[in-house]
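User: Hey, my collaborator sent me this sequence without any context and asked if I could get a structure. I don't really work with proteins. Can you help?
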Amino acid sequence: VRYALRRSPVELGNAIFTGSAQRSIGPKQAFGYGEVNPSNAPGMAPYQAKPPENFEDTVKYISRGMTQMPTRKEIIEAIGYPGQKHSAGGITTVGRIYYGPGRYDYGRPVMPQGWFANWFYGFWEFGHLMFVADRWIFFRQLRHLFATIVCFIPMWLQMQWNVKQWDDFKKTHVQ
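Assistant: No problem. I've predicted the 3D structure and written it out in structure-token form, which is a compact way to encode the shape of the chain:
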């Protein structure tokens, strides 16, 4: 058997150069298992397409959007699992597990009409993403918070014991 490296010409027809790795088959801009655009997906209702501008829409938005229990898909995507697919995005963008017609940012987002809602649109969008449309991201942040606390408590306890031992040492070993 010969193990020598052989020179070969660059194959210009491969996926890197032709873009054939990006196939237009299947759903776009959504990931995870299950349906991409189910009828009961959070954030797909018409009153959730833009910031509420009247009392009736505000009541619907808070009572139905923010108090709805998370779906099984949201919980599984938030916890994570081996082989979990990730989304198309850069450093600060995240994917959508539900995406399609009816979602507020599908296509061109409908902007609010009043100046008050326009002024606070960024705050509304953050709350909408974290607590209504992409709640799995908020749950994932909670996962990180709880894991940090679980890892921090033993170190903090060790630190407290060490301080106490140093105090005891200083009392018994005067310099």
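In plain terms: Residues 115 and 121 are 10 Å apart (CA to CA). You can pass these tokens on to your collaborator as they are.
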